[in-house]
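seq:
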Amino acid sequence: MKKLPMAPLLMILAALLTAVYMSPWWNRYLGLSLDGYLPLYGRLILEGNIPYRDFFLHLPPLNPLADAAIQAVAGPRLIAFRLMGVLERMAMAALLTVWLARRFRPATALAASLIAVWLSSCCDTEVLDLYNHHSLFAALAAGFAATVAINRSPRRPWAECASGFLAGLAFWTKQTSGLGITLAIPAAWLFLALRDPDDRRAALPRLARFAFGWTLCSLPTVAWLDLHGAFSAFVQQVFLDAANSKGAPAGLLLRPWLGPFVIPALSRSARWAASAVLLAVLSLRLSKTRFSTDTQRWYPVLGIVTIALTTLCLLHGRFWELIEGRHLIKLSQFGVLLSTYGTLALAVVFAVHWVRFPGDHRGRELFLFSTVALALNATFAMSFPGDMICAMPGLALLTAVVLEAPAWQPYLSPSRWFVAVPAGAAVVAAMLVQLARPFDFVYWTEPPVTEARHRSALPALAGLHLSEPTRDTADAIVALVQRASDPGEPLFTFPVYPIFNWLADRPPATFAMLHWFDVTPDRIVDADMVRLRETMPPVIVAQGARDRFVELHERYFRGGAESGFRRMQNGLDAMLRAHYVRAGAWRASEEDPLLRVWIRTDRARARNLLPAKRKQGTTAD
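struct:
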């Protein structure tokens, strides 16, 4: 194994730089349409409810169980979950840096890992504490342990068990990425064994130890589910319902690679990214004798210099006016799609290289790394290709390779300009977008972080700096819900606002708490609509989706067929017109539909909450 005397220093530096990078925005927004639903699951578990049996859950139970543990220790405070997300990003940067430093220069490893971690962290459609990155971190740790496991001297059998255990953690956090890493590591080991006698002899014991570690991780969760009579429901909801809600199986498999070309918002970035990767591959010449780290010293810092220069350009006011925000978004998407197509190219290149030169130990490690990156990219992109998380860890490997791999021209490799420069620019663009729009999911768009100067009166939001519209919306809706309902009475939120159940301490009115296209299957949405008509909860918080928005998602996730979401929205509109009065309405921006609070007419009359004039309407504008 290569000695890494600088490894601790690199890890600390990567973690600290990541903390500095995230410091301007990590606690300066509130994603009302996404924050809070995992903590709500955790609270329900603390109250004795079992996922799958007592409420619908589209993912394995590890994240809700962890959220339950955090609330048991720290109480219902959102800042605790947000802080865990920051610490996880710091740990991820440290782990990825030390993994790359095994086979690349320390400066290269640091620059490449920071580019990937920083870009993947700037995602306005996610919050920091979400199962995607939790599963990613466990998968990266599994890949690193798998790399340590293939060392020739000294051999470390414990690393094979650790790799399986960590892959199990990834699986029980998010089924797709966890299954991807669980299959990718044994597949990579078996491929290496095809040409190497030592790996061939060690293959079966290695796989057995991996399986032992995976089983050791999985048994407690399986036993807990089975003990509470929820295991069969877990299989149904996670592997059948959740998968069906995302579309046909063939579409899921092709979506990571072909999806960006047919999605209008991604098509141009996909074409440019695929072209850049093709040109970069053509400019590289990998061979057994020249595939080394003997490069000019200034190459590894190219990514850092690129980021610095691009920052100066983008911060110049006139240049900002010329490119506009939408171009920054496309530039950041370009960096993510570089990872998508670059990871696929690297996996093929390293596989061919290993077949030609099976004695190259550096090549075997990089093939394993590329296999892990390919599996994670493909499984994360099944939800939506182009998401920032898809930059991990493929963009790090791609950047490191083009900075150090030999090329036709020793002093000016074209591959560096095709990949490293746009990758660095994408990080800067993503950061600027994050500062200007820290959150934008469904119909809740947060204003720039410079407007986050207010504090909420709600204890659960202590420690967060919020914009005035967000603060006012959260405080007013929670106060209204608590006035119109008693503790223990259900609250229904539609389609993605269970944060108000958590903030107001009101149980959900339906089996599922989210009624979104790629999360909840139509059969459960339809059943929940029947339950709503029967229970008629005293308060409903609803925000309708416009027809064009619904049609787009039905084409993407239902092949154009009518969705349960549409049926629920129509049924909810009819129920609100007949039995409820509108008590208030808020929005984050003028472009977003109103988020309304509806109170059942008899309850509003009994508690003197009737407005001056009864407002008739629907959930949508």
